[in-house]
C-alpha cells in the first residue's frame, strides 16, 4: 500500500485523493460526452448539471463519512484526523443524485436519458476510486490473524504483524469494473431494441447490482456503511428496471 505518493515540504500528494479526483473527472467528462453524443443534450445545460452533481457529491460523501465515524470519535475509538479523512460513496451518490434531479428539472433535461448517460461512467468511477481506498487503507475489510498468510488476504500498512484482511476495496473495484463491462453490453442491446423510444435500463440495473453487492458484502468491511441506503437503492433499482423492461417490450411491439 502507498498512501503517500510523494511529499515535498508540507505538500503531500495522497494516492487516495489523486485516484478519487481522477475517478470523478472520468465520471464528469465521460458523462458529458455520452449525454451530448448519444442523447443530443445541450452542452451548457449538461455542464451545469454535472458541476452541481460534482460539488454535491463531494460534499455529501464527506459529510456522510464524518457522520458515520462521529460515534467512534466521541467514544474515543477513532482520532479526529481519521474521523475527518475519507469519503462515503453512499452519501456522495445520494447527495449528487438529489441535486442532479433538481438541476435536471430546472434545465428541462430528461431524467431517464441523463441517468442512462451517467450509469456507465459511474461504474468506472467506483472501479478507479476504490483502488485509491485500497492504497490509503480506508474502507478496510475485517481482519484476522493467520499463519501462514492466505493467498487472498491483504496486509495493510498500519496492521500489526500476522493480521490479514478481506480485500474489500479490491473486490468492490473488481465488482464495479465487471458491472461496467456488463452495462456496456446491455446498453448495446437496449439501444437496438429501444430505437427512438426512451426507457432507462442501464442505470436502474447499475443501482440494483451495486446495491445488492453492498448489501451482501458490507458485513466483511471493518466499518460497514448504512445498510438502509443500499437496501433502498436495490429496491428502487429493481422496481425501475422492471418498469423499464415492460416499456421496452411495449416499444418493440409498435
Automatic annotation (TrEMBL):
A GO biological process of this protein is: lipoprotein biosynthetic process
Q: Which Pfam families match?
A: LGT (PF01790)
Membrane-crossing residue ranges in chain numbering? 15-31, 51-72, 84-104, 198-216, 228-250
* Matching InterPro entries: Lgt (IPR001640)
The superkingdom listed in its UniProt entry is Bacteria
What's a GO cellular component annotated to this UniProt protein? plasma membrane
A GO molecular-function descriptor: phosphatidylglycerol-prolipoprotein diacylglyceryl transferase activity
Question: What keywords appear on the UniProt entry?
Answer: Cell membrane, Membrane, Transferase, Transmembrane, Transmembrane helix
Q: Does the keyword Ion transport apply?
A: no
The UniProt entry's sequence similarity note says: Belongs to the Lgt family.
Among PANTHER family, the record links this protein to: PHOSPHATIDYLGLYCEROL--PROLIPOPROTEIN DIACYLGLYCERYL TRANSFERASE (PTHR30589:SF0), PROLIPOPROTEIN DIACYLGLYCERYL TRANSFERASE (PTHR30589)
For this entry, the protein name equals Prolipoprotein diacylglyceryl transferase
Q: What organism does the record attribute this protein to?
A: Cloacibacillus evryensis
Amino acid at each position: 500500500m502507498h498512501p503517500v505518493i510523494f511529499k515535498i515540504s508540507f505538500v503531500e500528494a495522497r494516492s487516495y485523493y489523486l485516484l478519487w479526483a481522477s475517478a470523478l473527472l472520468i465520471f464528469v467528462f465521460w458523462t458529458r460526452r455520452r449525454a451530448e453524443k448519444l442523447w443530443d443534450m445541450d452542452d451548457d445545460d449538461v455542464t451545469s448539471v454535472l458541476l452541481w452533481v460534482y460539488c454535491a457529491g463531494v460534499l455529501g460523501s464527506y459529510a456522510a463519512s464524518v457522520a458515520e465515524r462521529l460515534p467512534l470519535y466521541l467514544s474515543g475509538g477513532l482520532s479526529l484526523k481519521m474521523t475527518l479523512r475519507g469519503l462515503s460513496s453512499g452519501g456522495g451518490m445520494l447527495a449528487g443524485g438529489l441535486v442532479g434531479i433538481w438541476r435536471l428539472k430546472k434545465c428541462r433535461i430528461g431524467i431517464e436519458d441523463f441517468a442512462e448517460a451517467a450509469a456507465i461512467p459511474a461504474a468506472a468511477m467506483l472501479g478507479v476510486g476504490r483502488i485509491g481506498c485500497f492504497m490509503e487503507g480506508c474502507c478496510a475489510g475485517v481482519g484476522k490473524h493467520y499463519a501462514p498468510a492466505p493467498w487472498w488476504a491483504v496486509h495493510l500498512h498500519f496492521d500489526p504483524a500476522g493480521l490479514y484482511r478481506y480485500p474489500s476495496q479490491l473486490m468492490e473495484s473488481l465488482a464495479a469494473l465487471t458491472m461496467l463491462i456488463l452495462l456496456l453490453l446491455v446498453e448495446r442491446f437496449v439501444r437496438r431494441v429501444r430505437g427512438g423510444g426512451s426507457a432507462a435500463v442501464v442505470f436502474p440495473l447499475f443501482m440494483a447490482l451495486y446495491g445488492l453487492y453492498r448489501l451482501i458484502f458490507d458485513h466483511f468491511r471493518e466499518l460497514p456503511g448504512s445498510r438502509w441506503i443500499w437496501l433502498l437503492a436495490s429496491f428502487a433499482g429493481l422496481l425501475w428496471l422492471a418498469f423499464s423492461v415492460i416499456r421496452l417490450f411495449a416499444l418493440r411491439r409498435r
